[in-house]
Design a protein that fits this description.
The complex is a heterodimer. By secondary structure, chain A is an alpha/beta fold. Chain A has 6 helices and 8 strands. Chain A has a single domain, classed as Double Stranded RNA Binding Domain. In chain A, 40% of the residues lie in helices and 29% in strands. In chain B, the strands form 2 sheets. A 6-stranded mixed beta sheet of chain B has the order 2-7-6-5-3-4. Chain B has a two-stranded parallel ribbon with strand order 1-8. Classes of the chains: A alpha/beta, B alpha/beta.
């Protein structure tokens, strides 16, 4: 059978369409970013913070599957570890990265508070699959703050959003740009919201009071 | 490449709640041109903001320009899209935050110029057919595209903590591409005209005062 006749067959057309869709669906674009997050304006929070990144957090690489479009695989875990580390280095007096998760059985020495982030949600919108004119990327973190003894003192959710125009033949660059904007958005939220958490404020206030009490006691003893 | 006709309109609005005159910019005072970044669909093109910055930095009396990226980094996180002040009424609260005023004084920025707007295609049409063979090839037909660039610059005076003025620029034009064997593009550069008009008006607004 000639090719001309073959292309007229509905089954042949369906086959070509299915193969094209399978080929496109098989493509995976992997996105990795390495960002820089500036130091915030204002004074540092007087705390020594421990950061614990669970393996599931560090290795978080969501894959966005779009119908008949190449998949997007985003290395969000590595970028988020970098973001959290830089934000807390800039925001607080001192930061240590912990190897093990804090618990009541294994309290951590020499830290005031322990921050444990986790992912809640991730989404990526491709302009070729939506009515939008840009790539749009969003995700959510849940941030838990524990005392050195392992008791939860604050938790909240951070929403991050970034978008970027589609660059001709450089879609990966667009997604990278959207991801960097989203990480910066998360960094801004984290910088503002961490010192405002009631549990964190209470901890700083109680610690200041205990230092003042200790100083008064010391002065009274000297006298 | 030829240029097609573009018609433009520039409007200026001076604002001072206390009816004081606008102070002319001093040599040691810097200006920063910022893109109004929002999470909504439309956003000003980065190239347009860069064009306005470049124009203000050149010419007979160039301004001291602080780059957008540098300013946003130095003011982190207060000029990120989530936290940036949306209107001048939010300015006093921002400047009252610990360290903000000191940082602005260190940078030396007196005026923040927020750019908002975009270039859009209003209509397009026409047809063109091209054919190529062993003996050569060519095109026949005409296509056209009507574009409009509409931008607004809101000038905030950080020293007086208020809006100094608002300048808007609108430019409209139609690009044509007739083809009789060879296509000849005649481009209407609406964004460039709007950028030049806006930058010139901002320059005279800040240098003349009044």
């Amino acid at each position: 059978m000639k090719l001309k006749n073959l292309s007229a067959l509905p089954l042949f057309r369906l086959g070509v369409l299915t193969l094209s869709a399978a080929f496109l669906a098989g493509c995976v674009n992997t996105v990795k970013v390495s960002g820089r997050f500036p130091a915030p304006v204002g004074e540092k929070v007087p705390l020594l913070v421990g950061l614990y990144f669970a393996p599931a957090f560090k290795n978080y690489t969501p894959v966005e599957v779009l119908y008949q479009r190449p998949k997007w695989k985003v290395d969000l875990g590595t970028a988020s570890v970098q973001m959290f580390s830089q934000v807390f280095v800039n925001l607080t007096d001192q930061v240590v990265v912990l190897e093990n998760k804090p618990s009541a059985d294994a309290p951590v020495d020499n830290v005031d508070l322990i921050v444990v982030p986790s992912f809640v949600d991730f989404g990526l919108l491709d302009p070729s699959a939506t009515p939008l004119d840009f790539f749009s990327l969003s995700f959510k973190y849940k941030v838990d703050v524990f005392s050195a003894e392992g008791s939860l003192i604050a938790d909240w959710v951070i929403n991050a959003y970034g978008k970027a125009p589609p660059y001709a033949l450089k879609k990966t660059e667009s997604v990278k740009e959207a991801l960097m904007f989203a990480l910066r958005d998360a960094a801004a939220s984290l910088t503002i919201e961490f010192p405002r958490q009631p549990g964190v404020i209470r901890y700083i206030s109680e610690r200041s009071s205990s230092i003042v009490r200790a100083q008064n006691q010391l002065e009274a003893n000297i006298e | 490449m030829l240029s097609a006709c573009v018609s433009s309109q520039i409007e200026e609005f001076r604002h001072d709640a206390n009816e004081r005159s606008i102070e002319a910019i001093q040599e040691f005072e810097a200006v920063v041109v910022l893109t109004r970044r929002t999470h909504t669909a439309q956003e000003t093109e980065k190239s347009f903001t860069e064009c306005v910055s470049r124009k203000l930095q050149s010419g007979k009396k160039p301004f001291r320009i602080t780059k957008q990226a540098q300013f946003v980094d130095l003011m982190f996180p207060y000029f990120e899209p989530r936290l940036a002040p949306n209107n001048p009424y939010e300015m006093p609260a921002l400047l009252a935050k610990p360290g903000v005023l000191d940082r602005i004084n260190d940078i030396g920025v007196r005026y923040v110029i927020w750019i908002d707007g975009s270039t859009e295609t209003l209509d397009q049409g026409g047809t063109m057919t091209c054919a190529f063979g062993a003996a050569g090839g060519g095109c026949l037909g005409i296509t056209w595209r009507e574009k409009e660039s509409s931008y607004e610059a809101s000038i905030w005076d950080l020293k007086r903590q208020q809006v100094a003025g608002t300048i808007s620029a609108d430019a409209k034009g139609t690009s044509y591409m007739p083809a009789l064997v060879i296509p000849i593009p005649m481009i209407a550069r609406t964004a460039k005209v709007a950028c030049n008009g806006l930058a010139n008006q901002i320059h005279s607004f800040l240098t003349e005062g009044g």
